[in-house]
């Protein structure tokens, strides 16, 4: 794992590692996936695993879940009964590299990377821009790869993926930074966290809290404890 310099903002960790044949405790089952697809996925999950270890996050107590739009996020495993907030995460892949970003609890983050010298054909520009921005890209095609990675980072930070049309993203409205790291163009975006999907434990804790609020005599404990109150 190679840790990259953080950018100015909330506490975060940015890292990359070469894609290879490997496994991770966070690897998902991907039926009919090609060897390349599996290597990409598993390398990204292994890099996430190592980043979490670097941040002293207990790997045996957490899992990686997905939102309805397939955005990954960390959650305490059912039965652990912990609900303190966990870091925001994002994973990306670029040819021979996996990249990963962590950000302190209370934020969501998105990371994307492409080879810095990759060229995007001008006839594809209208897939990521429109109006004045499209005209500007056509006249300044060298910044196309930076624009593309920045918009992908925003899509990930918003946890919407392609449900957020890149043509509708005005980068001036988001926290997003792009930089070159050796052979890669890296873009990172972040925002205040929204709500992740609730777990069964979250619902039970909420119900318990509401019962305690409605009934001051409400208590949680074993029968023996309750009878001795």
Describe this structure in words.
The protein is α+β, with helices and mostly antiparallel strands and 229 residues long. The protein folds into two domains: 2-194, no CATH class; 198-229, no CATH class. It has five helices and nine strands; from the N terminus they run E-E-H-E-E-E-E-E-H-H-E-E-H-H. Strands 1-2-6-5 form a four-stranded antiparallel beta sheet, covered by helices on one side. A three-stranded antiparallel beta sheet has the order 7-9-8. A two-stranded antiparallel ribbon has the order 3-4. Mean pLDDT is 90; it is low at 222-229.
SSE layout:
Blueprint: E1 2-4, E2 12-18, H1 35-54, E3 62-66, E4 72-76, E5 88-94, E6 97-103, E7 107-115, H2 131-139, H3 144-157, E8 175-181, E9 184-192, H4 200-214, H5 223-227
Antiparallel strand pairs: 1-2, 2-6, 3-4, 5-6, 7-9, 8-9
User: Main β-sheet, in a few words?
Assistant: 4 strands, antiparallel
Low-confidence stretches: 222-229
Spatial strand sequence of the major β-sheet: 1-2-6-5
Number of domains: 2
What general form does the structure show? globular
Q: Estimate the strand proportion.
A: 25-35%
Mean pLDDT: 90
| H-E string | EEHEEEEEHHEEHH
Count of separate DSSP helical elements: 5
Instruction: Please estimate the helix content.
Output: 25-40%
Number of DSSP-assigned strands:
9
**Alpha carbon gyration radius:** 21 Å
Distance between the termini: 54 Å
**Secondary-structure-derived class:** alpha+beta
